[in-house]
Amino acid sequence: MKRFEQFDAQGYLSPKWHWAAFFMTLPWLLYRKRYMDAIVYSVAGWSFIQLNITLVLLAFEFVAMSYVPEAYQMGVRVGIALVIWVFWAAMVARWTDAYYYRMARREIADAINDYPRDMAQQEAHLRREGGVSTVGLGLGFGFFAFVLMVIYGQFLPIFALKKEREVLFDAYNVTQSAQSRVALIYEQTGRCPTNLPLGTDLQKVRMHITQEVAGVAATDCAVVATVREVQFPIRYLNGKTMVFYHQPSTGNWRCISSLNKKQTPKRCLAN
Asked: Are 199 and 155 a contacting pair, CB within 8 Å?
């Protein structure tokens, strides 16, 4: 009513600020019984926002993402999406009071026009069209909870599996390359080069050379690789190991891993 009085006094609509519409536009629309507007906002509004996010992300991906360090790329993508989403949420929040004022004036005009001499019917019309709906509010939050469950249960695992395969593929290749170097030195000198530096500053795996490996009885040289510094949603890979070890009795190099059977590279399983 304070906002409505301001609009009446100034004689025109102007942007204000509405926190509920900023943080939870859909539940607010349902709470205010604006069911059709809520459907339009959900279909057209969200589609428009998502289209903007997609176009900006695609443009940034081709133009500038190659200049962003890999560790920050996902954060940049999320940041871009949030900036666009916050911008449109702010636009909605600024004009929500004006929208509701016009809606209220329209409903009042309809009530007077439909029941010009029946105050009871006018009041019944306004009670039906105005006021609030706790059921609608619950539906709004229930919808958000459902969307989060779908994202967490369906889409996040698909994305995580892709990232997991990328990290493990790179880790295996890096470790195998290091093992080839160690094997060559071992063959030439007959000694395990435990002091050989293995540079992996730009890789998501830390490697070291040792003559003893827990769980491996017969070895005199091994390359141990440990996955590190991977981010959500595959943080569970941090600390997982991949070991290439030498068997003195056969002269062969074999591989073991703390990864489960599905995660372990097939070439490591074959060893």
From this structure: no
pTM of structure: 0.59
CA 131 and chain centroid, separation:
36
Mean residue pLDDT of the chain comes to 89
Q: Per-residue pLDDT tens for 79-132?
A: 999 999 999 999 999 999 999 999 999 999 999 999 988 999 999 999 888 888
DSSP for 123-175, written as a single string: HHHHHHHSS--HHHHHHHHHHHHHHHHHIIIIIHHHHHHHHHHHHHHHHHHHH
Domain boundaries, given as residue ranges, for the chain: 2-132, 164-270
Edge-to-edge strand list for the sheet holding 253-257: 205-210, 221-227, 241-246, 253-257
pLDDT for position 200: 59
Neighbours of 24 (CB within 10 A): 17
User: Dihedral of CA 246/252/253/257: which sign?
Assistant: negative
Pick the CATH number of 164-270 from 3.30.413.10, 3.90.226.10, 3.30.700.10, 3.40.50.720: 3.30.700.10
Question: Distance between CA 125 and CA 110 in Å, rounded?
Answer: 9
User: d(Cα 92, Cα 99) in Å, to the nearest integer?
Assistant: 9
Distance CA 224, CA 205 (A): 10
* Mean pLDDT within 194-206: 78
Q: Which of 228, 216, 231 is nearest to 175 (CA)?
A: 228
